[in-house]
Structures are given as C-alpha cells and as structure tokens.
Amino acid sequence: MPMMLQFANVLVFLAVGIFFLVFSLTLSSLVRPYKYSAEKLSPYECGENPVGSPWIQFNIRFYVFALIFIVFDVEVVFLVPWAVVFKKLGMFAFVEGLIFIAILAVGLAYVWAKGDLQWVRPEERGSLAER
Amino acid sequence: MIPLGFYLVVSAILFSIGAYGFLIKRNIITLFMCIELMLNAVNLSFVAFARYYALLDGQVFVFFVMAVAAAEAAVGLGIIVALFRNRQTLNVDETNLMKW
Amino acid sequence: MDGSLALEIPQIFPEIALSVFGIAILLLDTFLPKSKRHAATGIALAAIALTAVFTLGLVGEDGTFFSGMIVVDGFSIFLRITFLVVGALTVLASSSYATRENLAVGEFQALVLFAIVGMNLMAASNELIMIFLGLETLSIASYILLGIKRSDAKSNEAALKYFLLGSFSSAFMLYGIALAYGATRTTNLEAIGREIAAGSAGMTLIYVAVGLLFVGFGFKVAVVPFHVWTPDVYEGAPTPISAFMSVGPKAAGFAVLVRVLMVAFPAAYAKWLGLVWLSAVLTMFVGNCVALVQSNIKRMLAYSSIAHAGYILVAVATRNQEGVAALLFYTLTYALMNIGAFTIVSLVSRQGDRKTYLDDYAGLGFKQPGLAAALSIFLLSLAGIPLTAGFAGKFFIFRAALESKFVWLAIIGVLNSAISVYYYLRVIVVMYMKEAPDDWSPVAMSSSAIAVIALSVLGILQFGIFPDMLISLARSSVIGYR
Q1: pLDDT for the residue numbered C1
Q2: Has residue A55 been placed in a domain?
Q3: Is the pLDDT of residue A129 over 70?
Q4: Residue A77 is nearest to which of B66, B77, B81, comparing CB atoms?
Q5: Disulfide: which of A50, C191, C309, C390 matches C384 by Cβ 3.0-4.6 Å?
Q6: Within 13 Å and on the Cβ side, how many CA atoms surround C23?
Q7: Looking at per-residue confidence, does C160 or A71 come out higher?
C-alpha cells in the first residue's frame, strides 16, 4: 500500500506528540516536591474562594433559543445545495424551495406568537411586576 | 486514498461504542449522546460508500439523517426538560414509576 | 425534470393535504381566541375526509413516481385508508379526552395528522431512505403525543422510554440501510431486489443489513425480544394515544416490513426465516402469558397488543399473497377493536387516567349496560370468538400459514388464542358478576366517544359476519403486488 505512506507523517506526528506529553509529565512528576494542602486541592477560580456548587441551572430560555437556532441551522444544509443549482433546475425547484422556507417560517411565527422569543414571557412579566 | 474498508471499520467501531454506551450509561443526556454517536457512525458509512462508488446520493442521505437527528434532539431534550421538572433527576434507574 | 415531477404531485396529494391542514391547525391554535380552539377537531376530521377522497381518487393507479421513490399500488392505497380510519377514530376519541384533561386540543390533533403523514409515507415508499423519513415523521410526532401531559410524571416517563428506545432502534435500522446501500449501490427496493437476483451484491453485507432492519422494525411493532418498552409506554401514555400507538405504528411497521422483505430481500429473508418463526412464537407466548397476570387494564391491553403482533408476524412469515391479504385484513379490523376497547378504558378511567384497574370495572354491566356490552364485543373480538372480526382475521392468517406449510405456527397460534380468551373474559366476568362499589360515580360519556365506539362495533360486526367483502378487497389489493 504505497499510497498509505502519505499518512506515515501523520503517524509520526502523533507518536512525537504523545511521547512529548508523556516525557514531560513523567519528568516533572519525578523532580517536583509533593506538598498538598486544602488550599492547593481546591478548584482554581482566579484566586478567589469558590462559593456554592458549580452545578447551577441555567435559564430554560437558553435551551429554547438553542432549539430555534438548530432548526434554521439545519435549514441551511438544505438551502445551500438548492441555492447553488436552482437556476439549472428551473421554476419547479424554486417554488419547492420557497415552500420549504415557508414551512419553517410558519414554525418561527408559531414560536413568536407563543411568546417564546421573549426573554421574559408575557405571563411571567405580570408576576414579576407584582413582586 | 484510504481504502473503503478502513472507513467501514471506524464506522462499525463508533457504532458499537454508541450502542455499548447506551446499554451501560445511566444519565439520560449521555444516552442521548450515544444515540447521536450511532447516527453519525452511520453517516460515516454513507459518505464512505458514496465516495467509493462515486455516487452522490449517499451524501444526500447524510443531510436527511442530520435533519432527523436535529428534530429528534429538539423533541428529546424537550421531553428530558419536562421529566426533570417533575422528577428532579436525570438517572434512568430512577425513572421507574411503571414496572410489571 | 421539472415538468414531469410537477405532474406526479397528485400521487402525494393525501400527504400534502394532511400536512397543510396540520400546519393550519397549529396556526389556528395560536392565533384564535381560546374559546374557538376546539374547532381543531372539526378541521382535523375534515382534513381526513378530504384526504380519503384524494386517496380513493388514486384507486387503479399502479406504478412508481418521483424517480422511483413513491409507489402507488393497491397495497399502499389499502394501507393509507387503514391509517385514515385509525386517524379519524383517534381524532374523535382524543377530542373529548383533551378537553377532560385540559390539554391543547389543536396541538394534539395537528400531531395526529402529522403522524398519519408519516405512516402514509411509510406505506407508499419504495425506497429505504423514504421509509426511514416516514418512520421518523411518525416517531417524532408520537414522542410528543406520548408526553403531551407535561405535568404528569407517568406521561413524561412513557415519552422518555419510547424516545430512547425508539431512536436507539432507528439507529440500528439506519445502519442496516447503510449496509444495504453499500452492498447494492442503491436504496430503491426494486433495484436492490434486481441487484441481489443478478448476484452482483455482497451477500454477507445483505444478511447483516436484513438482520439490522428487522431489529429496527421489530422495536416499532413490538415483537419479542424487542417488546420491553410496550407495557410501560402504553400505561403511561394518554389513553387515546395508547390506542393509536398500539394500532397505527404497528400496522405501518408491518406493512413496510412486508414490502422490504418481499420486494428487496426475498432471498436473504429466507435465511432469516427461522428467527422470524421463533420471534413469532415467542411474541405470542410472552404477550399472552404475561397478560394473564396483569391487574391494570392498560398493561393487559399492552401485552395483548404484543400477542397480536405475534399473530401478524405469522402472516409475515408465510411470504405468500394470501398471508399479505390476511395481514391487511387483520391490521384494519384490529385497529377497530383495539381503539374501541381503549376508548372505553379511557372513559372509565375518569379524569387523570386514575381508574385503570380491573376492580374499577366491577358492576359496570349493571350501571352502564351499553358501555359494558360494547366493551364485551371488543374483548370477544380481540379473543377471536366467532362472528367477530377478530375471528375472521385469525382464521385468514392461520389458513395462510397452513397453505405455506407452517403447520406448527398455526397450531401454536390457535393455542395462544385459547390462552388469551381467559384474560379477556376475566374483564367481562368482573363487569357482570361483581357488585359495583358504593362510591360508584357514573362514567361521563361524550358524543365523540360514542361515535368512536359505535363505529368500531359496527365495523367489527360487519367484518365479522360478512368478512368476504373486506378480504376480497384485501386480496385484490395484493394482486398487483410485485
């Protein structure tokens, strides 16, 4: 398999990389002193003492926005090939693509009308104002 | 050119890692990631076959699989969020209201 | 390429109509004032009626369209009508349910329509990737439907279990599709069949691919050993959706399984036949034997649906036209009896789906004789008592099995029907032989639920006493079947 030889330098690169990592870690573990303390074992947070658990819940809105992003993210996967060739395919493909975009636009309108595009939803805003 | 067989072996290994992970892991999000790994392993097979036979349709299938995976992710995460709100856990062993 | 494709669009009018109406319902649900949102049920029924007209307009067509991706033949038209019947009954049954449980009616009905689109596409696909897309359309709609009671932990759990196992099995099926594509350079079912017949395909890959496809479909139709999700999902799901899940995806899965195995992989299927045989036998025994000890009616019906999947798998194993016709007959009549039974279970369970145990049926025969009589008819039909559609369906399947020399399969099937009589009769005994509890509250009826029950009873008696019409229709649907 002579053509496989092209990949030999990838292998060499990989081997050198692994060797370098293992070598330097081993060397430093041999020469460094072992003096642990509670301070040193705590997670490093810019020199400050950590407060509370790092496992906090994020606002659920982040998730909703991420989902809406995914929909339009994947839409592009289909639109790019369509945009490249639709001149050759003619009117039918053009209309087809428009219908595809229209269906996704309906999805966006649905999300919008349900109030999911606002950071604070209308019904929540009322209860926040009362507080 | 890397021969077709190499791709297929990598794809089979990835698929097996995904399936194995699905069977032994306990966190729902991890299970979900294992499924995504399996789908993407299949995508690798599709692309490898398409390239080997110089056909385009295998690559188009990958688009469809990606779209399906995105839709599944959206719905799946929605279900997981609803479950977490009611149960406060993401461990599959603790989602056991119903047993025979 | 543009002109000819546009001319083929009428072949998928049914699916287009359903999708458009589904989207319209979603928009109406968002933009209409709350008091008018119950219109969704009427619109969904209108959509199904319109789709039925479009579908019947295709009768007589026989060919493939959209570069061989869609096939319109008697088989797919018969199935599309079956799915529309399932959909119409589900829409009717769920409208009163959604009101009772305070669910968004519009989202509910729109999702049912989308699920029908998925099933229709599965029945009409002539291409593995199209089948996968149809299956996923169906699955994603049903994941949401299962979990639509967002604040109910059981509904969440049902949705989660079906989602995890469903997507796990989809991945297996997709891998099977990839391997079949690799072995034959195509995903078109007929082209795969030709490649294999010409001997230009790698048979090892094909055998593995067929095995993986069977795993994928096996999960969807719940045959042993891929059935474990069924009871939990049916128990936790909103009851009309349990009914839908037990008939719709099952019929679609079996239809596609038959088409894939008989058109694309007849030779490879013969190799796997032993395993299919074993799976059918195990499915019947496990379903019926575990159903014997259930005290929750929804779980009992879930195990009964596993057992029925076993009977249908017998029809798949016969590999002859009579078997396929019996499968078509069975899936349609099974849909009627199971949706009918689940609808009554849904009514009896009262608000919150709480009263689903066998004891909750005590005295129903005296308190509400009409309801009890209807449930008795459904259960007798599920058990396969003569003069019901269930008997006719089982008769056709077992006769097809005998014709293709599966004597043992037929004997085991009949034996299993005998076992199943016990747990169906147990419900009837409780209804008529036990006193109602003192704190009995009457079962609230609704006109839509009554319509579902009446239609199902009529269908069961019609096809049970005069099965000739439907079975000859099914046979003629299979004749064009390549």
Answers
A1: 43
A2: no
A3: no
A4: B66
A5: C390
A6: 15
A7: C160
Whether A28 is covered by a domain: the verdict is yes
Record: contact C2-A110, CB cut-off 8 A: no
**B36 Cβ under 8 Å from any chain C Cβ:** no
- C-alpha radius of gyration, chain B, whole number: 17
- Is the ipTM of this structure higher than 0.85? yes
The residues with which C64 forms a beta bridge, in sequence order, are: C71
pLDDT in tens, C245-273: 999 999 999 999 999 988 888 888 888 88
CB C309 within 8 A of CB C303: no
As for how many domains chain A has, the answer is: 2
Same domain, A107 and A76: yes
| Residue C66, min C-alpha distance to chain A (Å) | 13
Residue where the block lists tokens 């096809």: C463
Give pLDDT tens digits for B7-61: 999 999 999 999 999 999 888 889 999 999 999 999 999 999 999 999 988 999 9
- Asked if B45 and C133 come within 8 Å (Cβ–Cβ), the reply is no
Element (H, E) at A62: helix A60-89
B66: exposed, middle or buried (C-beta count within 10 Å: 0-12, 13-18, 19+)? middle
Of B18, B64, B80, the CB nearest to C129: B64
Q: What is the mean pLDDT of residues C361-374?
A: 91
For residue C168, the SS3 value is helix
Q: Decide if A63 and B81 are in contact by the 8 Å CB cutoff.
A: yes
Kindly report which listed range (C196-200, C446-450, C454-458) carries the lowest average pLDDT score. Answer: C196-200
Nearest to C255 by CA among C385, C120, C162: C120
Q: Does B84 touch chain A (CB under 8 A)?
A: no
Residue with tokens 């076959």: B49
Within 8 A of C179 by CB-CB distance, chain B residues are 45
Q: Do A74 and B66 touch (CB under 8 A)?
A: yes
Q: Quick one: A126 and A85 in the same domain?
A: yes
Lowest mean pLDDT among A62-66, C115-119, C254-258: A62-66
Same domain, A124 and A65: yes
Q: Is residue A120 part of a domain?
A: yes
The domain spans of chain C are 2-479
Q: Radius of gyration of chain C from Cα atoms? A: 21
CB environment A44-69: b (16+ within 10 A), e (fewer): eeeeeeeeeeeeeeeeeeeebeebbe
List chain A residues with CB under 8 Å of B73. Answer: 70
What's the pTM value of the predicted model, to 2 decimals? 0.91
Structure tokens at C58: 């295709």
CA distance A30 to C1: 72
Range of the domain at A83: 60-130
Task: Give the number of beta-carbon pairs within 8 Å between A and B.
Answer: 25
The alpha carbon of residue A126 is apart from the nearest alpha carbon of chain C, in Å, by 20
The burial of A25, by beta-carbon neighbours within 10 Å (0-12 exposed, 13-18 middle, 19 or more buried), is given as: exposed
The answer as to whether A65 is a domain residue is yes
> Cα C452 from chain centroid?
17
Query: Could you say which of C136, C160, C181 has the minimum Cβ distance to residue B95?
Result: C160
Average pLDDT over every residue of B63-86: 89
Residue A30 shares a structural domain with residue A71: no
Residues A37 and A67 in one domain: no
CATH architecture label of B26-88: Orthogonal Bundle (1.10)
Residues A77, A31 share a domain: no
Phi first, then psi, for residue C357 (nearest 5°) are -95, 160
